[in-house]
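Bit of a strange request maybe. I'm writing a small parser for structure token strings and I need a real example to test against, not something I typed by hand. Could someone generate the tokens for this chain?
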Amino acid sequence: MQARGLGDLMTPSFLLRGFRYWLLAGAILLGLYLPLLYRDWLALKKEAIHDIEWHTTSLARLMSRDLSHHRSLQEILTHLDEPQTRREFEEHVRQKIGYLGLMRLKIYSPDGRPVYRSDGEPLDDEDNSSEFRQALAGQAVTRILDPDAYTLKHGDDIDITIAETYLPIPGAASNEVIFVLEAYYDATPIINRLHHLFLPRAINLALILFGVGGACAFILLKNLRLSDRVEQLEAFLPICSHCKKIRIEQDERTEWVAIDRYFSEENHISFSHGICDDCLAEHYPEVARKKKEELSG
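Reply from user aminoacidic:
Good idea to test on real output. This should exercise your parser:
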């Protein structure tokens, strides 16, 4: 019996099964890739937000440390309407803003009214945004605004990415939020670094999953070919060339059985016996001769 080559195995049914396996493997890899990619993005974004918020939290700590020698920060912010207090506070804040790289600063009272603006603009823009309410509840919040989003919110045209950080300022004697600090920071370098870090991670993750998936698909394809080959080999029946008995192997035992018994046991086929003309002439010549004379007469 001649063995079949690889080309003989490439039947339409085999190719269809192989395509289904590849499609399933691709769906599984995509289902793994997207959540892992999203997790990496969230981790990098969290790190970027932490870097951005560091500047604002550092400003709050420095103000609380350097301005609280004679009066608490709460008392200073409450009396910013006094010219001397406001002048000293503005001088200190401008130094710290320049040192920390912040663009400008706003401070709000709990009712959303501004009590200080480092840009000198009028104190007439109340804040009731969701970020302000979250900060009032004691949570630091940072919102990243691209140029279009910033223009839509503030009306100013810019070409950089701005980070707005809302930071709660608790009282000295309690954890109750007494003021909310809003700082603006040029986050363009940090966002660019985030994108530069994310792209190689996305490519590396794709290569790893593609390699693992390719190896699994290769093994699966080999098993599929082997299974198809076994099915083809099982389709051949070993039969004796003389007595026509069929060989069966069961429980590590080989047995030769008659062909009618084999099909009766394996396929539940019942046989009715007769005799063909050739065997009749060979084994029963007289009967065959009489039959022939009857047919010719």
